[in-house]
Amino acid sequence: MDQHVAHKRPRGRPRKTVADRDDGNRRQQLIAGAARLFRRKGFDATSTRDIAAEAGMQSGSPFYHFKSKGALLYAVMEAGMRAAIERQGTALKAAALQKSEQIGQDPRGLLAVLIQNHFDVLLGPGSDFIPVMLYESRAITARQRATLATLQGEYEAPWVPVLQALHDAGQLRADVKLARLLIFGALNWSVQWFDRRKGATVDELAAAALALFVQEKP
Hints:
- There is one protein chain.
- The protein is an all-alpha fold.
- The protein has a single domain (18-213), classed as Tetracycline Repressor, domain 2, CATH 1.10.357.10.
- It is 67% helix and 0% strand.
- It contains eleven helices and no strands.
- The longest helix has 29 residues, at 69-97.
- The N and C termini lie far apart (83 Å).
- Residues 1-7 and 16-22 have low confidence and may be disordered.
């Protein structure tokens, strides 16, 4: 047997090294830490030194991963939207698997799922990302806003047929497009005033919102 057998080159992507994985983790730490600070203090009042300290890094480390504080802000917003899209898709798939007629077929039940999930995105654990996008968008570029608008459209798309079905059934009397805008406006504003320490739960908030927006079947 030939002792000089050449090793086959492995197919596919090369495995990530420990350093690569560590860089990825540090990037995510920066994004999560920045999201917390941008929400708590605002973009303008948060320094890169603050962000580095929040992530447990040296003061100059954020610039290894992001060109500027503005680039980090956009990364926070994009990460938040992509996570929200994925989470909503998971919630809808779970609802589709349920045999309950109320959730699986009734549009009011589907709207309940969408509202509950949206409140979880806005107010649940790790919910700093979307509020930052809602209130700091003036600090990013027009191109970045356009990309986020595309992601936002992807997120809101599953709501349209549900609202249309409710409108057709007489349970939603408003124009579907206006209803969608008003509903999201009301839900998103909850980040300004909701405080679970004052007694209400997210579940109670979702039930109240559903009762406000749509009627029961006649």
